[in-house]
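Need a sequence for this fold. Nothing fancy.
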C-alpha cells in the first residue's frame, strides 16, 4: 500500500499490535483506562513533538497530554470519544475539520 508516497506494508497496518494503545488516566479522581488507535496516537504525538511513541507502549509525555484533554473536557462528554475527537481535530487539516463539523450539523 502506498499513502502520500510512503510505502506501508499491509501486514504492518493490520497486525494486532498496530490497533490500539491503552492509556491509564484519571476521570474525576478515579483511575480508569481508555484506548486510542495507534496511528492517531502517533500523529498526535508528532503534532506535539513527542518522540518515542511505539505501538502498544505508553509514553509518559503522551499520557500526560491525553490526561490534559480529559481534564479539559466538558463534564457531560464521554471521555474516550472526547479524547479521540480532540486528538483527531488537532492533527487533521482545519479545512477537513470544518467540513466534518458542517456535515454533522446538517445531519442533526
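Here you go.
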Amino acid at each position: 500500500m502506498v499513502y502520500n508516497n510512503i510505502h506501508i506494508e499491509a501486514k504492518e497496518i493490520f497486525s494486532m499490535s498496530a490497533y490500539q494503545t491503552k492509556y491509564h488516566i484519571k476521570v474525576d479522581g478515579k483511575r480508569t483506562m481508555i484506548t486510542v488507535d495507534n496511528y492517531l496516537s502517533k500523529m498526535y504525538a508528532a503534532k506535539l513533538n513527542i518522540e518515542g511513541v511505539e505501538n502498544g507502549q505508553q509514553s509518559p509525555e503522551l499520557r500526560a497530554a491525553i490526561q490534559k484533554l480529559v481534564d479539559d473536557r466538558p463534564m457531560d462528554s464521554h471521555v474516550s470519544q472526547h479524547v479521540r475527537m480532540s486528538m483527531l481535530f488537532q492533527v487533521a487539516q482545519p479545512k477537513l475539520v470544518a467540513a466534518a463539523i458542517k456535515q454533522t450539523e446538517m445531519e442533526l
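For context: The first strand starts at residue 2 and ends at 3.
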